[in-house]
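Cross-check.
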Amino acid sequence: MYKKIGTVVLSVFLAVALAACGNSVGNAGNEATNKPAESNAATAPASNEKKTKIVYWTGDRHDMDYIKEVIQNFNDTNDSNIEVEMVVKTDDYNQAIDLAFASGQAPDLLRVKENTIQAYVTKGYLAPIDDLMTEQMKQEFPLIQDFNQIGGKVYSLPNYGSTLRLVYNKELFAKAGIASPPKSLAEMVDAAKKITEVGKADGAYGFALNFKSPDSAFGRSARVIAEVSGIGGFGYDFKTARFDFTGFKDIIQAYKQMYDDGSTLPGMEALDIDPLRAQFAEGKIGMYISFSSEPGVYKNQFPAKIEWAAAPVPSIDGTIKGASSFVGGQWLAINSSSKNQEAAWKFMEYMYAEEILKTYHEKGFGISMVPSISAVASKPDINGIEGFLPTENDGTWPLNPTVTVEGIKSNDAFFKYMLGEGNLDEIIKDLNTRYNAALDKAIASGEVKAEPKPDFDPMKLGAK
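Predicted model, tokenized:
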């Protein structure tokens, strides 16, 4: 199955990379909030004007202004008297979703991602949309098993995909005498130290990540470093169908070394992604790792005052042993308990219209996964996008089983070690024990299936 996923998605990606260059190229207005809906979003009564109000929750901020404009246009022009409220959850989005469903305050629509859609389907959060889709939609949108089609039913449609890259300040690299981006962890640690040595007096440091959320920080960095090194990015070994975090040892030690060296931006422990971007745009960070949404951010949200570029992420030892992860396949989904599913679908159908998806791609918020869109959309005319365009080493890894582990999660445990707590070997041993216990429990209950793939080759996931 994993070969089929890589082939379908990456063929779309390479079509985008080869698309003719064009010219086309937002963000502020809507204030991000962590407040839950004040009433039950799924059963909210119509207003005095007899509008049907539906609520949409998302954790995405890079596209916030554009989506706000799109929603405003829908509210102003739809002939069904529907009003959509968008709520941007700035922190702990996944936890907020669980709490909202547990308390009966879940939104009518929600943003789903590769690491949540299967869990949400299992928990009964999402409504299948097969019967709502038009025949044209069924033909135009690629349906990828486990990514948007689960158990034979469709729960979300793709919009865009994201590559992951090392984002670096070319000016700081030149000032530190670094000729090219690092290709190994040792080179990354060394580069961070050199940049800090020449930049510290001006408040510039070698490395940073958004460790206010360890899941987000490691999920956009350690994950892909592991994958290009041939290791499952979430600690799952597809060959053995067991969790094994041993391969993360060198990665986490490198992060700790940069932290111990003083090569990381002070206060990084409490840094969120947007403040990190703001600091990078001001020239205060030498490098970090993130998604292909960054070029749009530095054009629209935080105009960069520096020369910057993107490069492939380093592997553990400088040798490429696996595909660099492609991330995507889902976007919007409907709450299975919403009393306004018909209105929610009308809005969802509007959001998947050609012009909206085309503009999304051209503004650089993400690389389109929809063949009919990539065929007509211009390549984003945005500085830095070149470094994020798909290559033959970008590929889609299969989804690993989602388990509910007792005790501290892997990324939180690694973060605590990075700050100086615990023994890494003991931490990894404990993680392996607890995650495999959770896996065994999930298999026994029938929640997940996990079968060994002895012939699994992470190098074959890339486009050919």
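The longest strand covers residues 52-58. The two ends are 17 Å apart (CA to CA). Passed to J.P. for a second look.
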